[in-house]
């Protein structure tokens, strides 16, 4: 591993490459996908030094884990698997809430291990907070999986500071996965300071704001971005001005918009790990180039003064469910 481009996940976690690869988009969340290209993208990432692959058992109803399992066969020693669990899906792709009961935790883990074709999951995390199950019970169940050798590290996703504190009292937490970008800066206020106080890292997804910052638009009804506030109605029209300003800023510095958005996160949160949702080799190569194009403090300030994004990252019902968004 190139130590020049690594960071430790919290005070108790592993060393990982500076950028992680998020695999969700390879299983249809943003429209049609190509398994062959997805496999090439994962293999290229590993060849370029990326170590952290982020997946979820509910991405494509198991498709994503099966895909990742194919990709890492014979390459396990190069990979750190971050797996989310707990979201319930229907055969029609519908969402059915979250289940973090201890018995469900172990059931989810058993299926993930089989689909991924591995003996141990490096980082295991509930995808959301279950309002019906105390976080202590969920973390306790994962801690038993750690003791039994099926999981190496415990992490969380989209939870607030108090939930992290409660979880930490049961077992060390290596990181919290959160959405963070030029358009989603909420964690800066209180959550990031709390994580640093506790010695907990962060893996940051949505650094391109699901393609908003690069000018990408929803491809159709199957693309869930079509239902997100920032991509529709008056918010989309208002955000377009900021997107264009970002693109001009990038062009002036001979950077792509994606490189600029990633470089901003790296400059703003140097101790945390951006998760890049590349679905194609070209997207991955573009993203990795951001590591060689760091932004100065002046660039960061100048960029922030140019952009102002509007609209929540999810609809009202989903925002209400996010523990990380509570005051």
TrEMBL record:
One of its GO terms (cellular component) is cytoplasm. Residues 18-307 form the NADP-dependent oxidoreductase domain. Coiled coil: none annotated. GO terms for molecular function: oxidoreductase activity. It comes from the Bacteria. SUPFAM superfamilies: NAD(P)-linked oxidoreductase (SSF51430). Pfam families: Aldo_ket_red (PF00248). Keywords: Oxidoreductase. PANTHER family: AFLATOXIN B1 ALDEHYDE REDUCTASE, ALDO-KETO REDUCTASE YAKC [NADP(+)]. This is Aldo/keto reductase.
